[in-house]
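@channel anyone free to eyeball this complex?
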Amino acid sequence: MLDLKEYEKLESISIVITQPLINSYSEASGDHNLIHLNTEFAESTSFGHIIAHGMLTLSLIDQMMTKTFKNHWSQTGVLKSKFRGAASVNDHVGSIGLLKSHEEMDDILRLTYDVSVVNMNSKDLLIGGTCTVEVPKLLKPKA
Amino acid sequence: MMHSGYINIGSICMTEELLNQYTDAVGALPGFFGNSIPNMLIISRSIAMMLETFGIKDGAIHSTQEISNYDTVDFGEVVNCYAQKGKSRIMKDIEMIFVSCKFETQKAKIICESRSVVIVQQDA
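replying in thread with the prediction:
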């Protein structure tokens, strides 16, 4: 019988959101939306302050999947996510990945994870969703 | 290859400098991605192209994001980004904009696809 213990919980990735990090992400992505960069503009939005790019926060899930599954994630991974809240400057945010289900197909194992990004202090959910990845049955995720 | 209903919103040349910049910008340690270029880098850069192409205003925020990975790219390869804007939906004071993107190399190898929903406040 297949032992899925090693697949059950993924190693979390966490960062502290800072304005320099947001600025750096704006440069790297080319996304200079004022809601991430301009205090006066951000104060006029429903958030009332600068928020991090959703894709910056979402990158924690991508990093978590990459760390464990390497190219299997880049070549077979599917991510479905919904943004539930926004990360602000000084927030400590981290990813969570818990095995939801698995499916065996010949030599391949299809794993589906419940994934999320949460504010590590307030525990507020920022992103929720699922990730599916296909790996060879012999792959040891943390080897 | 042009996909029916999609328009070319730009191209990205994959370089080591771009990967290093992205690695730093997402708070990862240098070398985290090794020599593998994450498709998330491509999709991240396409968001700005998509916002500009479709004239989506500052203040727009992400509602949902789906990504399907099919393959990887190497340094030196150029990825073409194609996008299709779906019909917008207006609910009270917000507009929901649906955009699908396809990403492929110049040799027509599909790298990944994405589907985004962005929300724009009507008074933003």
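from a first look: Strands of chain A lie at 14-16, 78-83, 92-105, 108-119, 125-136.
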